[in-house]
Batch of 2 targets.
Target 1
Amino acid sequence: MPDSVVLRGGRVLDATGERAADVLIEGPAIAAVGDGLRGDRELDASGCVVTPGLVDLHVHLREPGHEEAETIDTGARAAALGGFTAVVAMPNTEPPHDDPAVVASVLAAGARSLCDVHAAGCITKRRDGAELAPMGELHALGVRIFTDDGACVESAVLMRRALEYASSLPGAVIAEHAEDPALCAGGHMHEGEWSSRLGIAGRPAVAEAAVVARDCLLAELTGTRLHILHVSTAAAVDLIRDAKRRGLPVTAEAAPHHFTLTDAACAGFDPVFKVHPPLRSDADVAAIKAGLTDGTIDAIATDHAPHAVETKERPFEEAPPGMLGLETALALTLTELVEPGVVSLAEAVALLSWRPAHLAGLTDHGGPIEAGRCAHLCVIDPAIAWSPDPARLASRSNNMPYAGRTLTGRARHTIVAGEPVVIDGEPQR
Ligand SMILES: [Zn+2]
């Protein structure tokens, strides 16, 4: 029989509230929550908050096809170190997740990794926007989120068909990378004062809002669940708020870089700040924070996008878009949202854990922390100060834009299905 583990002396925080309690784990499950519990092994949680494991709806693990940038193993390791017990791998691999065999191999590799790896499926074959992918077959493998992420579904007709098809698949949600390709063509950063000053072609905010507006109307027409990936503009937040007010089945996520950085960061032409959708204006950052505060935005998702050093060292216009996120998301949320009072600690954990778990249909994740539940847990030290170092990341890439920032709070222990995969910030295998 496997050893039992006690998380000793922490404050347990889940959707039902917060209380001081130990947590006893036996095998893959929580055996008891209460005072003075004993086990074969003890992990110190004093001064810490014990939460359901974090869930990331949006990661790029690059396998298959770009293992020089990341693998499922290294990406899951970065996730576990960041406090995540589950991630949803985006389908823009090579080959992409438009084929049940590819999805099955991703899930098989994920099963050997340090966290629970789920796969999103493509909306269209090859993600080229021409013909629907075999969504039913992918759904049969457990896929619930369908997206051509990295690419926007340009055709309104195809988007309508995808939504109609998905309405027959239980739990399915269509997730959109909302950037109108024609409006963004040739653009490399947010279109605004900074792009004119730097002489870099822009990607206008209206490119996002136009697609969000169209897709909300199509969600209304079809009644199918729509999820807007990495919302970055004030206009899109307003549209989503309005859609929710009208009772439409629309959800949204925001990435940490869209509430912690602005387009001014591009002033030095450093490609580490190049991302799609791009870093926006101060007003957009304020709107994302307001959307997180009032529930318009349902989840914080990293859009973890590793790129090999050689490619990110190209000139700004030639470098691929994307930045790492898994090892900094929790700390950025605590430092930039919880400390200044934008959201409470409980709201932050909701955005990082049970709301995304619910959205993706991951019933094992997101709590509540009670006897009989699967032990996917994160022990957060909310007070520790640290500075992320691109040279010391578990990720195979180092395109991380927060070098030198002092952050407060970090995952101390991560437990996946009862196994302490990270203890005191160190991976256990
Ligand atoms: Zn995207």
Target 2
Amino acid sequence: MSLTANEVHALKTAPPLEGVLPIFHQRWSARSFSKRDVSAEALRKVFEAARWAASSSNEQPWRFLVGWRGDSTWLKINEILAGTNRTWAHRAPVLILGVAHTRFSKTGAENRYALFDLGAASSYLTLEAAELGMTTHQMAGYDREAARNALGIPEEYSLGTVIALWYQGEPAALGNATLIERETTARTRKPLDEIVFSEWGVTAGL
Ligand SMILES: Cc1cc2nc3c(=O)[nH]c(=O)nc-3n(C[C@H](O)[C@H](O)[C@H](O)COP(=O)(O)O)c2cc1C
């Protein structure tokens, strides 16, 4: 089945529900890309959204390394990607690596919620990108040791995801049947009954 970029976006958008911000249903992780450039202004906005996430003790443990296509950080992030991810992510004009400081800055004590907080900030980033008409794709599939070495990330920072950021493009341009099929399949989620409990294992019935 050959779908256009707009048709894919409609297919990937979850059904709306009154009172739920539409962007939650509209964000999805594309693999196809358009050649449209990402502006510095747009990039600033996605990080502005990320920095207003909540965090344990307001530590804001997240740090983001951002690479623009062709610069040395972009090249290093592209290089550390697992091959299966690089096949499509190498087209991204922006590659970001999120990391989290695992020590509280005031006391040096362990911050066990650092990665949790980075996840929240990363979510804000992806939602703001969607709001701006862009798409993001987070990836855990990369060589973590190589990332530390190549990007000089200190030990006390935990590694989060690599985030590809771009404007979604035509799925056919992916040029690989498996990727095109993934790109043109509707998203699924567990029902609330399976994830919200009133007691352990007992659905809250919402
Ligand atoms: C922590 C994390 C790691 C992920 N790693 C990868 C990855 O290595 N490769 C990939 O293709 N997608 C990866 N994804 C994307 C997920 O597969 C995707 O978010 C999930 O299937 C739900 O789809 P959606 O984001 O379009 O709603 C990752 C997402 C997250 C949050």
